[in-house]
Amino acid sequence: MHKIYTNIGEHIFEVTADSANFMNLVIRQFTSLKKIPDRPVDMVVHIHGGYGTPLVTSDFSITEQARKLLFRRDDYLIDIDPDYYSANLYVYNGPALRQAFISLYSSFIVFRNWGFLMHGECVVDNGLAHLLCGGGSLSISDDSENPSRPVSEGIVLIKIASEGIRVFDSPFDEAATKRNSRSNLIGSVHFIQQAFQNKQMKAGRTYSLLRLLDAVFYWPHSTEQTRRVITMLRRFVQAAPVYSNYFQKREEIKELIS
Q1: CA dist., res. 67 & res. 19, Å (int)
Q2: What is the pLDDT of residues 50-109, one digit of tens each?
Q3: Would the pTM count as exceeding 0.70?
Q4: Residues in Cβ contact with 226 at an 8 Å cutoff, skipping those fewer than 6 apart
Q5: β-pair type (128-133, 183-194)
Protein backbone atom coordinates (compact mmCIF):
# COMPACT_ATOMS: atom_id res chain seq x y z
CA MET A 1 0.00 0.00 0.00
CA HIS A 2 1.33 3.43 -0.99
CA LYS A 3 0.11 6.65 0.65
CA ILE A 4 0.64 10.38 0.27
CA TYR A 5 -1.01 13.57 1.50
CA THR A 6 -1.70 16.38 -0.94
CA ASN A 7 -3.62 19.63 -0.98
CA ILE A 8 -5.85 21.01 -3.72
CA GLY A 9 -7.13 24.53 -3.19
CA GLU A 10 -7.73 24.67 0.56
CA HIS A 11 -8.39 20.94 0.98
CA ILE A 12 -6.14 18.13 2.14
CA PHE A 13 -6.49 14.64 0.70
CA GLU A 14 -5.06 11.36 1.91
CA VAL A 15 -4.45 9.27 -1.22
CA THR A 16 -3.64 5.57 -1.15
CA ALA A 17 -3.00 3.12 -3.98
CA ASP A 18 -2.09 -0.56 -4.24
CA SER A 19 -0.14 0.10 -7.44
CA ALA A 20 3.15 2.00 -7.41
CA ASN A 21 2.51 3.02 -11.02
CA PHE A 22 -0.76 4.74 -10.16
CA MET A 23 0.77 6.38 -7.10
CA ASN A 24 3.57 7.76 -9.28
CA LEU A 25 0.92 9.27 -11.56
CA VAL A 26 -0.66 10.96 -8.52
CA ILE A 27 2.70 12.29 -7.38
CA ARG A 28 3.37 13.75 -10.84
CA GLN A 29 -0.07 15.41 -10.90
CA PHE A 30 -0.17 16.76 -7.35
CA THR A 31 2.31 18.14 -4.85
CA SER A 32 2.99 15.77 -1.96
CA LEU A 33 3.01 17.32 1.50
CA LYS A 34 6.34 16.85 3.22
CA LYS A 35 4.80 15.85 6.56
CA ILE A 36 1.59 14.45 7.95
CA PRO A 37 -1.01 17.25 8.18
CA ASP A 38 -1.67 18.70 11.62
CA ARG A 39 -5.41 18.80 10.95
CA PRO A 40 -7.89 16.12 9.83
CA VAL A 41 -7.91 15.45 6.11
CA ASP A 42 -10.93 16.52 4.10
CA MET A 43 -11.19 13.26 2.17
CA VAL A 44 -9.53 9.85 1.95
CA VAL A 45 -9.20 8.53 -1.61
CA HIS A 46 -8.33 4.92 -2.47
CA ILE A 47 -7.11 4.16 -6.02
CA HIS A 48 -7.62 0.73 -7.58
CA GLY A 49 -6.37 -0.36 -10.99
CA GLY A 50 -7.62 -3.01 -13.39
CA TYR A 51 -11.08 -1.58 -13.92
CA GLY A 52 -13.06 -1.12 -17.12
CA THR A 53 -12.10 -0.78 -20.77
CA PRO A 54 -10.53 1.90 -22.97
CA LEU A 55 -12.77 4.94 -23.32
CA VAL A 56 -15.08 4.60 -26.34
CA THR A 57 -17.65 7.30 -25.59
CA SER A 58 -17.95 9.97 -22.92
CA ASP A 59 -21.31 8.55 -21.79
CA PHE A 60 -21.67 8.13 -18.06
CA SER A 61 -24.21 7.00 -15.50
CA ILE A 62 -24.85 8.07 -11.92
CA THR A 63 -26.44 5.81 -9.33
CA GLU A 64 -27.46 6.92 -5.84
CA GLN A 65 -27.65 4.21 -3.21
CA ALA A 66 -28.28 4.32 0.53
CA ARG A 67 -24.64 4.64 1.54
CA LYS A 68 -22.83 5.51 -1.67
CA LEU A 69 -22.90 7.51 -4.88
CA LEU A 70 -21.58 5.83 -8.03
CA PHE A 71 -20.16 7.69 -11.04
CA ARG A 72 -19.54 5.25 -13.88
CA ARG A 73 -17.81 5.63 -17.24
CA ASP A 74 -16.17 3.06 -19.55
CA ASP A 75 -12.73 3.65 -18.08
CA TYR A 76 -13.48 4.47 -14.44
CA LEU A 77 -15.88 4.05 -11.55
CA ILE A 78 -16.09 6.44 -8.58
CA ASP A 79 -17.62 5.16 -5.35
CA ILE A 80 -18.24 8.07 -2.93
CA ASP A 81 -19.73 7.98 0.54
CA PRO A 82 -22.74 10.33 0.87
CA ASP A 83 -20.87 12.72 3.21
CA TYR A 84 -17.90 13.01 0.83
CA TYR A 85 -15.33 11.93 3.42
CA SER A 86 -14.03 8.94 1.48
CA ALA A 87 -14.05 7.61 -2.06
CA ASN A 88 -12.77 4.72 -4.15
CA LEU A 89 -11.48 5.33 -7.68
CA TYR A 90 -11.45 2.24 -9.91
CA VAL A 91 -9.56 3.19 -13.06
CA TYR A 92 -8.33 1.69 -16.33
CA ASN A 93 -5.22 3.83 -16.93
CA GLY A 94 -3.54 7.18 -16.23
CA PRO A 95 -5.90 9.42 -18.26
CA ALA A 96 -8.85 7.70 -16.59
CA LEU A 97 -7.32 8.42 -13.17
CA ARG A 98 -6.91 12.12 -13.98
CA GLN A 99 -10.49 12.40 -15.25
CA ALA A 100 -11.87 10.48 -12.27
CA PHE A 101 -10.05 12.77 -9.84
CA ILE A 102 -11.43 15.84 -11.63
CA SER A 103 -14.96 14.48 -11.38
CA LEU A 104 -14.47 13.58 -7.72
CA TYR A 105 -13.01 16.94 -6.69
CA SER A 106 -15.61 18.87 -8.69
CA SER A 107 -18.45 17.06 -6.92
CA PHE A 108 -16.70 17.42 -3.57
CA ILE A 109 -16.35 21.23 -3.67
CA VAL A 110 -19.90 21.70 -4.98
CA PHE A 111 -21.19 19.49 -2.15
CA ARG A 112 -19.27 21.64 0.35
CA ASN A 113 -20.57 24.88 -1.26
CA TRP A 114 -16.90 25.87 -1.51
CA GLY A 115 -16.73 26.58 -5.24
CA PHE A 116 -16.38 24.83 -8.58
CA LEU A 117 -14.06 23.83 -11.39
CA MET A 118 -14.58 25.66 -14.67
CA HIS A 119 -13.32 25.21 -18.20
CA GLY A 120 -11.27 28.28 -19.04
CA GLU A 121 -8.00 30.05 -18.53
CA CYS A 122 -6.79 32.57 -15.97
CA VAL A 123 -4.50 35.55 -16.44
CA VAL A 124 -3.20 37.45 -13.39
CA ASP A 125 -2.58 41.18 -13.81
CA ASN A 126 -1.69 43.51 -10.91
CA GLY A 127 -2.72 40.86 -8.39
CA LEU A 128 -6.19 40.27 -9.88
CA ALA A 129 -7.30 37.16 -11.76
CA HIS A 130 -9.06 37.59 -15.10
CA LEU A 131 -10.98 34.54 -16.24
CA LEU A 132 -11.25 33.73 -19.96
CA CYS A 133 -13.76 31.20 -21.22
CA GLY A 134 -16.05 30.51 -24.12
CA GLY A 135 -15.61 29.79 -27.78
CA GLY A 136 -12.16 31.25 -28.34
CA SER A 137 -9.85 29.25 -30.57
CA LEU A 138 -6.66 30.93 -29.43
CA SER A 139 -5.02 30.98 -26.03
CA ILE A 140 -3.42 34.07 -24.56
CA SER A 141 -0.92 31.85 -22.83
CA ASP A 142 2.72 32.66 -23.57
CA ASP A 143 3.30 29.03 -24.46
CA SER A 144 5.72 29.35 -27.35
CA GLU A 145 5.69 25.62 -28.03
CA ASN A 146 1.93 25.53 -28.45
CA PRO A 147 0.65 29.07 -29.00
CA SER A 148 -2.71 27.99 -30.36
CA ARG A 149 -3.77 25.84 -27.41
CA PRO A 150 -7.56 26.24 -27.06
CA VAL A 151 -8.84 28.01 -23.98
CA SER A 152 -11.24 25.14 -23.35
CA GLU A 153 -8.34 22.84 -22.40
CA GLY A 154 -7.77 24.76 -19.17
CA ILE A 155 -9.50 24.00 -15.89
CA VAL A 156 -9.74 26.83 -13.38
CA LEU A 157 -10.45 26.38 -9.65
CA ILE A 158 -12.75 29.04 -8.19
CA LYS A 159 -13.68 29.61 -4.55
CA ILE A 160 -16.94 31.39 -3.72
CA ALA A 161 -16.77 33.04 -0.29
CA SER A 162 -18.21 36.03 1.53
CA GLU A 163 -14.77 37.63 1.77
CA GLY A 164 -14.40 37.54 -2.01
CA ILE A 165 -14.19 35.31 -5.08
CA ARG A 166 -10.74 33.76 -5.48
CA VAL A 167 -9.14 31.87 -8.37
CA PHE A 168 -6.67 29.16 -7.32
CA ASP A 169 -3.87 27.51 -9.23
CA SER A 170 -5.33 24.27 -10.55
CA PRO A 171 -3.35 21.01 -10.76
CA PHE A 172 -5.94 19.78 -13.29
CA ASP A 173 -4.92 22.27 -15.98
CA GLU A 174 -3.47 20.31 -18.91
CA ALA A 175 -0.83 23.00 -19.42
CA ALA A 176 0.38 22.79 -15.83
CA THR A 177 2.41 20.40 -13.79
CA LYS A 178 2.28 20.50 -10.00
CA ARG A 179 0.84 23.86 -9.14
CA ASN A 180 0.97 25.49 -5.73
CA SER A 181 -2.23 26.54 -3.96
CA ARG A 182 -1.79 30.24 -4.61
CA SER A 183 -4.91 32.30 -5.22
CA ASN A 184 -5.93 35.74 -6.46
CA LEU A 185 -9.10 37.75 -6.14
CA ILE A 186 -11.23 37.77 -9.27
CA GLY A 187 -10.96 40.92 -11.34
CA SER A 188 -13.16 40.19 -14.35
CA VAL A 189 -14.65 37.48 -16.53
CA HIS A 190 -14.37 37.41 -20.32
CA PHE A 191 -16.14 35.35 -22.94
CA ILE A 192 -13.78 35.37 -25.89
CA GLN A 193 -14.35 34.69 -29.56
CA GLN A 194 -12.23 35.26 -32.63
CA ALA A 195 -13.75 37.80 -35.05
CA PHE A 196 -12.87 40.22 -37.85
CA GLN A 197 -12.52 43.19 -35.52
CA ASN A 198 -11.67 43.83 -31.87
CA LYS A 199 -14.62 44.69 -29.68
CA GLN A 200 -15.63 44.43 -26.03
CA MET A 201 -19.18 44.61 -24.64
CA LYS A 202 -20.53 44.34 -21.09
CA ALA A 203 -22.53 41.13 -20.65
CA GLY A 204 -25.79 40.96 -18.69
CA ARG A 205 -25.98 38.85 -15.54
CA THR A 206 -28.58 36.37 -16.81
CA TYR A 207 -26.67 35.79 -20.04
CA SER A 208 -23.42 35.49 -18.08
CA LEU A 209 -24.88 32.98 -15.63
CA LEU A 210 -26.15 30.72 -18.42
CA ARG A 211 -22.86 30.88 -20.31
CA LEU A 212 -20.85 30.14 -17.16
CA LEU A 213 -23.16 27.27 -16.21
CA ASP A 214 -22.13 25.56 -19.45
CA ALA A 215 -18.47 26.06 -18.50
CA VAL A 216 -18.71 24.59 -14.97
CA PHE A 217 -17.29 21.08 -14.72
CA TYR A 218 -19.78 18.92 -12.84
CA TRP A 219 -22.08 15.96 -13.29
CA PRO A 220 -25.66 17.12 -12.53
CA HIS A 221 -26.74 14.05 -10.62
CA SER A 222 -29.34 15.88 -8.50
CA THR A 223 -31.42 19.04 -8.51
CA GLU A 224 -29.79 19.99 -5.21
CA GLN A 225 -26.32 19.93 -6.74
CA THR A 226 -27.47 22.03 -9.71
CA ARG A 227 -29.11 24.49 -7.30
CA ARG A 228 -25.85 24.86 -5.40
CA VAL A 229 -23.93 25.55 -8.60
CA ILE A 230 -26.45 28.18 -9.75
CA THR A 231 -26.43 29.86 -6.33
CA MET A 232 -22.64 30.13 -6.39
CA LEU A 233 -22.68 31.37 -9.99
CA ARG A 234 -25.13 34.15 -9.05
CA ARG A 235 -22.68 35.33 -6.40
CA PHE A 236 -19.89 35.04 -8.94
CA VAL A 237 -21.49 37.28 -11.59
CA GLN A 238 -22.52 39.79 -8.92
CA ALA A 239 -18.94 40.07 -7.68
CA ALA A 240 -17.10 40.46 -10.99
CA PRO A 241 -17.80 42.39 -14.20
CA VAL A 242 -18.42 40.10 -17.19
CA TYR A 243 -17.61 41.01 -20.80
CA SER A 244 -17.98 39.55 -24.26
CA ASN A 245 -14.73 40.02 -26.16
CA TYR A 246 -14.13 39.69 -29.90
CA PHE A 247 -10.57 39.68 -31.16
CA GLN A 248 -8.61 39.26 -34.38
CA LYS A 249 -5.23 38.07 -33.15
CA ARG A 250 -4.05 36.17 -30.10
CA GLU A 251 -1.72 38.98 -29.03
CA GLU A 252 -4.63 41.44 -28.89
CA ILE A 253 -6.66 39.68 -26.19
CA LYS A 254 -4.52 41.14 -23.41
CA GLU A 255 -5.30 44.63 -24.68
CA LEU A 256 -9.02 43.89 -24.59
CA ILE A 257 -9.00 42.74 -20.97
CA SER A 258 -6.58 45.33 -19.61
Answers
A1: 26
A2: 998 888 877 778 887 778 889 999 999 999 998 999 999 999 999 999 999 999 999 999
A3: yes
A4: 220
A5: parallel
